[in-house]
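Hi P.,

Sorry for the delay on this. The queue was packed all week, but I finally got your sequence through. Input first:
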Amino acid sequence: MANQTHNGAPKGNKFANAGAAAGGFAGGLAGSITPPINITINRGNGGAPKQARTLLPDPDFYSPARVRNYCNTLRAVGVTLSIEVAMAAEILQATLAAVPDPDGRAMGSRIRAAKVSRKMRRSAVALRSAAKNAAACYATFQQEYEEEINRVRHRARKPKTPAMNWAEQ
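Then the structure:
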């Protein structure tokens, strides 16, 4: 059940199935270009989350490595989610455009669908912006704390170079 959604359908082709239902090109293409992301939620009684895992590490910034790890993870999650949300916006628009306009206006269905999907597209842009800002955060951290980082860098252990073992042939 690790690679399945809550309804039992495989996760890898969820956009392909939705795109086929909507009759849109974007959905069929999305399954091949969307990077995989696994979200695991352990459910207790009644469907309430007993213990939910987060996509981000704990925000304990006690070393430059932890700052880098947090920023890199946030960037990766932001990029992945922005792609998924952008594809979902395309699928939503294609699906809603197929619903007939109640007033019978020409292009009324497409206009209504565009209004609704525009909000989801803005969410995708915001996620992409969050990913960019996470990368910029770490770059700024390196610039602002360069002196402190360099002060301890020389004390870090240099990796051992493997010695040639001539006996092993």
